[in-house]
């Protein structure tokens, strides 16, 4: 894996959390984007080579809504950039990790993404992602 591409943080309200993170990081949010297939609204901040992604649920069945109900606001996932997401998915599967989709999905910020179930990763939800070129 190449680098930590972003850290995802589940929040109740982007309207509240965007100004908070702008103050905290001393940098403006550069993009807000809805990912309808994931039922989330996202907001991104660049921090050097990595990003912070704030995630707000747009529907009760959203993974973010479930997470907020169960655990409250906080760190939701770590995303690693990979050079070849198909090869990396095969490698992770062969190592016994449980992938949450059979094929990469289209995520926010022009990425192909795939999640790894937190049960096999010490309780941390891992995303791998690759820029769509
Ligand atoms: N980090 C760590 N653990 C998590 C978690 C997270 N983000 N979300 C859920 N869990 C835990 C649950 O608390 C539960 O733990 P226990 O068994 O100890 O109670 C366990 O994982 C399994 O939970 P579950 O009830 O079987 O399943 P959920 O319905 O909560 O779904 C998960 C969990 C990870 C499979 C689901 O959230 C998923 O498919 N996530 C991938 C997609 C996603 O997160 N999309 C939103 C972000 C999209 C984006 O970044 O664009």
Automatic annotation (TrEMBL):
It comes from the Bacteria. One of its GO terms (biological process) is L-methylmalonyl-CoA metabolic process. Coiled coil: none annotated. It holds the Pfam family Glyoxalase_4. GO terms for molecular function: metal ion binding; methylmalonyl-CoA epimerase activity. Keywords: Metal-binding. InterPro entries: Glyas_Bleomycin-R_OHBP_Dase, MeMalonyl-CoA_epimerase, MMCE/EMCE_epimerase, VOC_core. PANTHER family: METHYLMALONYL-COA EPIMERASE, METHYLMALONYL-COA EPIMERASE, MITOCHONDRIAL. Belongs to the methylmalonyl-CoA epimerase family. This is Methylmalonyl-CoA/ethylmalonyl-CoA epimerase.
